[in-house]
Amino acid sequence: MSLARRGQHWGTFARIWHIYDAKWQDPYKSAEVIKHYLMGMYKPIYHPLNSCGDHVVVINSKEIALRGDEWRKRVYFHHNTYHGGATWTLAWELHYKDPTLIVEKAVYRALPKNLQRRYTMQRLHIFPDEKIPEDMLKNVSNQIKQLTAVPVRLDHIPQKEVDNFPQLLKYPENYILK
């Protein structure tokens, strides 16, 4: 086997570490993308019964964005198996308790409902901010592209760029803005 072919063979079977920035991203749409990397669906050797998936590190899960008024209307169900043990938690309450749970539940829901789902979830590492342990960070070799671009806040745009932006109309000198 040639050296190039051997490297290609190793790259196919190796577990790669990917990083995904969840800032201002919809967790349910992001879960579909993360699922492909967790299960190894992009690899040529993928098979549903084959454990060839990679590790995915999700950062900034504290700054996710749900659509519309889902923060107030989306409900998460839990039952502790006792009579009357059903609880329904709103999305904003769950996010306040643990900022990583919504992303974790979204990815868990996106994975196929089989016995490998729990083992696949062990390769998902979620952090509420950008602080990642060094031993994990040194393994990361790929970045997953965000689904939507993160908008820039107006107070973070330099004043020089604001002044150079073309204006549609000029206010008179004595005009008072309210």
Automatic annotation (TrEMBL):
Molecular function terms in GO for this entry?
A: mRNA binding; structural constituent of ribosome
Q: Name one GO cellular component term.
A: mitochondrial large ribosomal subunit
Q: Which InterPro entries match?
A: Ribosomal_uL13, Ribosomal_uL13_bac-type, Ribosomal_uL13_sf
Pfam families on file:
Ribosomal_L13
Can you supply a Gene Ontology BP term from the record? translation
Which Gene3D superfamilies does the record associate with it?
Ribosomal protein L13
Which UniProt keywords are listed? Ribonucleoprotein, Ribosomal protein
Q: Which family does it belong to?
A: Belongs to the universal ribosomal protein uL13 family.
Q: What is this protein called?
A: 39S ribosomal protein L13, mitochondrial
